[in-house]
Amino acid sequence: xxxxxxxxxxxxxxxxxxxxxxxxxxxxxxxxxxxxxxxxxxxxxxxxxxxxxxxxxxxxxxxxxxxxxxxxxxxxxxxxxxxxxxxxxxxxxxxxxxxxxxxxxxxxxxxxxxxxxxxxxxxxxxxxxxxxxxxxxxxxxxxxxxxxxxxxxxxxxxxxxxxxxxxxxxxxxxxxxxxxxxxxxxxxxxxxxxxxxxxxxxxxxxxxxxxxxxxxxxxxxxxxxxxxxxxxxxxxxxxxxxxxxxxxxxxxxxxxxxxxxxxxxxxxxxxxxxxxxxxxxxxxxxxxxxxxxxxxxxxxxxxxxxxxxxxxxxxxxxxxxxxxxxxxxxxxxxxxxxxxxxxxxxxxxxxxxxxxxxxxxxxxxxxxxxxxxxxxxxxxxxxxxxxxxxxxxxxxxxxxxxxxxxxxxxxxxxxxxxxxxxxxxxxxxxxxxxxxxxxxxxxxxxxxxxxxxxxxxxxxxxxxxxxxxxxx
Length: 472
Description:
40% helix; 15 helices; single chain; globular
């Protein structure tokens, strides 16, 4: 045991990462494991990052296609962010948020509010996206309790949604397999259809599909009762569900129904916030809606420090302050709420976004989308879709039936393996490949990324033909 404790990172690197891989198999529990390998598996070991690239333990340099997990927006190895972490830690590394506060958190809240739509003016900080969504839902419950509406607690979510891994947030998830073996607060959640135009009923026009979604939402509110529904939680773009872009006007119409029925609209911008669609927040600037709350995380620090939060409408806070229960306590908080180091990093990250990164992302996004779209000429590709610097290549066995390869649902992993060998890390999601590179990516690097992805899909098609899984 002493020998293991004394093993230095440099020695691990010199061994090609073999020691770290072995330690991982012995002691590390990976996220989202299967029971058959839980606590006994190692995943691809990454040693370094630089710009849009990462390097694995074999020395192979890879384009970081997913930008970590939708989050390394300004790229790896930004000395400005590393320096801020050091400087802030040397000034104040931590303070309890229960009865003290720090300056970086207050300044960051002001700057975030300046980018938020409508009257969203106050920020509650969390440690990530799951805790941000959990906080928004608990605030909704508190809000309705204080206002004398203890029955108004049900939550509307959608198929294909992903909102987190904590108990309430995970209960909203609507992706295949997310909840097969996990419990949740099912009595509180009502699931609606996914707003995925690609999967709409055959022969239905896009306008009719939009009307169907809106009618379903309105009919659900009427059937269940607006007095029972506390919130709707929706991603502007369903990210982990496969970069699902909702039909034009859909979100605005849902927002109006929520407003008319006093249902809080929570826009989950954990992925789309802080530049992914070219703006700090997509709700107002891209989709023209002003939610009651926005949740954020990931890109707020470009992944350099765990931080998330909820932006809350001034109207909601005023209603609480005017209530007949001034002593009612919002009994919710986290040890690392308003962490000074995280907020300092987020401030510098926001500087970088405002100075040049947002403008660059807006400039290269059309090229990114156009180049990805060229992959639709491959027989295995059913659709390429995306917005800003996020895209999805969905593979199907038959373009007419849109059958997601029932005989081989791990096609995304196959493509990822080929791409890894060729120099690209892909985010595989069953039969989909999701791409969301760092926002600093150039046109030349986009060409490299799409070229590798094309070759990876082509090699996968060859494999599937040889195995008799797919004829093409």
